[in-house]
Write a structure and sequence with these properties.
By secondary structure, this protein is mostly helical. It has five helices and no strands. It is elongated and about 70 Å long.
Length: 140
């Protein structure tokens, strides 16, 4: 119990130790613009990749139909796992939750710098670790 309390105190210390007088609204606006730009570019890239994947899947299905491949071979090639689609939503939830937690912690530990990148990396890694454990538990 003492270890848990000590760990909680060490983790909570940066939140209470703010030596800043105030926050610059211009700096906050620039950070928001940068984060929004990165988010929009990421969404656009995911959109393009999804469209490309669907086009290539459609071409593959057409080629299979043209060649007259047997049903068993076609099913083995085209078979998709419905659990993957369900797990994709959980994966994105974990990534975005880790990203949000990292941005929140980085906001409270100003000024922004290299330690902010370390915080973001650590939070995203923890979210992937949580997703990994979720997959292990769902397989059982």
């Amino acid at each position: 119990m003492k270890k848990i309390l000590s760990l909680a105190a060490v983790v909570a210390t940066p939140f209470f130790a703010c030596a800043q007088d105030g926050y610059s609204t211009e700096f906050d606006r620039k950070i928001f613009e940068i984060c929004a730009t990165i988010f929009v570019i990421g969404l656009f890239m995911i959109f393009v990749l999804t469209i490309m994947k669907r086009i290539l899947d459609h071409r593959l299905k057409n080629k299979i139909l043209e060649r007259g491949i047997t049903d068993t071979v076609a099913l083995s090639i085209l078979q998709t796992n419905p659990n993957e689609n369900r797990n994709i939503n959980i994966k994105w939830f974990a990534i975005l939750a880790g990203l949000g937690a990292g941005l929140t912690i980085a906001n409270f530990t100003r000024p922004l710098g290299v330690h902010s990148l370390a915080i973001m990396s650590f939070c995203i890694a923890v979210s992937f670790l949580g997703y990994f454990y979720y997959l292990k538990q769902s397989e059982k």
